[in-house]
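OP here, attaching both records as promised.
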Amino acid sequence: MKIHHIKTIMPFFYEAKQGRKTFELRKDDRHYQVNDILHHLLFDDGQIQGDSFYQKITYKLTCFDGLTEGYCILGVENIPE
């Protein structure tokens, strides 16, 4: 298990934090794996704003028609604070 610190912009940050956005489309340059943790950092106006939350990766989709090579879709669930 690895923790990935990722910058997330509005409105996606709050949609995910509130549990309505349960997926992430990301470049797979960090080699995400199921059970890894995403630490979302609110990124706005060119800098990290201080708000954050955690999600667990529950599913990873790669190599699918229509998905650009080197990218993945991650199924995620919020980790209660």
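Record two, same layout:
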Amino acid sequence: MVDDLDDRADVWNEQPRKARKQYKCGECYREIAVGERYVYLWAKGSDGPFTARWCAHCDVLKDWLWTNCSGSVIGSVIEDCRDHVQEYAGRAACIPALARVVAGARRDWRVKYGPRRGQLMPIPSEPGELKPKQSESRSGSQT
């Protein structure tokens, strides 16, 4: 999504923190509760310094994009991951796991069914690497 290297920040200082007051996540826009883990960013780009915060849940998606795509655009992480799910459906082994994490984001990271309904989901694991699926003819044994 970043077409021009001038769009990248010159300074990037990301820190995990524990909320001492409520904040709003800059990715999923839900309230980060007091005591909840989140990431604080101070960065400086061509437009000057800026700050951002995102919840630990959205950080999993941001980390996945950095691992597989060498970066992300602040405020577009969920949308970008959703696009990857659609684009690589059936072609990459990690897509079902990525789709589950994106579905969690769509639900504001809340449990949808069962006795924990409405409670915050556990922080998901990062989906695997974006690699092509192995074709069955290659992985099968020859007779």
